[in-house]
Amino acid sequence: MARHRRAPHRPLAVNSSHWRADGIAKVGYPSEAAAAAAAADRSREAGVVLGVYRCDYCSSWHMGRRAERT
């Protein structure tokens, strides 16, 4: 059976989407569905709309606010 190698991680910048605003790494969820459920709960608690995305660094799913576009 052939083994597949994971793509090498790109360097992690302090301002990357892997980190929360307070400098702590974001919670990683194993699936988009798990992240979406957590985001929905957190959105109800905080009154903020949160989305989910696949992290380029850790390949987990994270939640976060979309940046305001001007």
Molecular structure report:
The radius of gyration is 14 Å and the shape is globular. The chain has a two-stranded antiparallel sheet. A hairpin with a 6-residue loop joins strand 1 and strand 2. The chain has a domain at 32-64. The protein contains one helix and two strands. By secondary structure, the protein is α+β, with helices and mostly antiparallel strands. The protein has one helix spanning 32-46, and strands at 51-54, 61-64. Helices cover 21% and strands 11% of the residues.
Are there runs of 5+ residues with pLDDT below 50, and where? Answer: none
What summary fits the major beta sheet? 2 strands, antiparallel
Strand content: 5-15%
Give the integer mean of the pLDDT values.
78
Widest β-sheet, arrangement of strands: 1-2
Gist?
21% of the residues lie in helices and 11% in strands.
Keywords for this structure?
70 residues; alpha+beta; two-stranded antiparallel ribbon; 1 helix
SSE arrangement:
Layout: H1 32-46, E1 51-54, E2 61-64
Antiparallel strand pairs: 1-2
